[in-house]
Amino acid sequence: KAGVTQTPRYLIKTRGQQVTLSCSPISGHRSVSWYQQTPGQGLQFLFEYFSETQRNKGNFPGRFSGRQFSNSRSEMNVSTLELGDSALYLCASSLNVDLPRTQYFGPGTRLLVL
Amino acid sequence: GENVEQHPSTLSVQEGDSAVIKCTYSDSASNYFPWYKQELGKGPQLIIDIRSNVGEKKDQRIAVTLNKTAKHFSLHITETQPEDSAVYFCAAFKGGGNEKLTFGTGTRLTIIP
Fold first, then answer.
1. Neighbour-count burial of A94, counting CB atoms closer than 10 A to its CB (0-12 exposed, 13-18 middle, 19+ buried)
2. Residue A4: pLDDT band with limits 50, 70, 90
3. Is the confidence at residue A100, as pLDDT, over 80?
4. Nearest residue, CB atoms, A102 vs list B34, B44, B95
5. Lesser CB count within 10 Å: N end or C end of chain B?
6. Residue A92 and residue B88: Cα distance in Å, rounded?
7. Do B99 and A90 touch (CB under 8 A)?
8. Phi-psi region of A80 (alpha: psi -120 to 50; beta: other; left: phi over 0)
9. How far apart are CA A86 and CA A81, in angstroms?
10. CA distance to partner chain A, nearest, from residue B35 (Å)
11. What is the pLDDT of residues B72-86, one digit of tens each?
């Protein structure tokens, strides 16, 4: 069974631009979560989608948004990029929202904001 | 909210020796504790997990112990091998509204041949 895939793998943007990242979960998985990983802040939860609905949200500004499609694929969008948004963005999928909440991560999209 | 502390931040052990990484969590309502291994250029990979109704779980050379009273859980790797070198993250999951995984800050494990 194929794992979680994320596209693109690398991205360079300039301040003020916006970016859209894509995540395809493991086949059959309905929950998709997004995380930001930086050397300073570590792994931080952005939001989770299940059945096309946002279930939970972390402490990030409204510039960070996401959505999930009927096939469980998810996208996250960051508008008005700032230098501090440079990070590895990770997507994780899980089968459902019952325990155990085993999450499987993709390889990430590395975003560099200049 | 939940806070997860992880120690040590770096750990070097001789090949064949054991490695132990420790985490503490703050919210007693957390009920699921996974451990992830992250190699350079890759996403975190789940290596073992434990639920709050279990005190210990083992999978070949890897084991996790959980002390709910102390809010403390640990990863034990025995007979370490060079391919065990990576960054390891512990995490705690709290359900019941605003569910999320809270990660520790990571331990860079280096196995010395």
1. buried
2. very high
3. no
4. B34
5. C
6. 17
7. no
8. left
9. 9
10. 10
11. 999 999 999 999 999
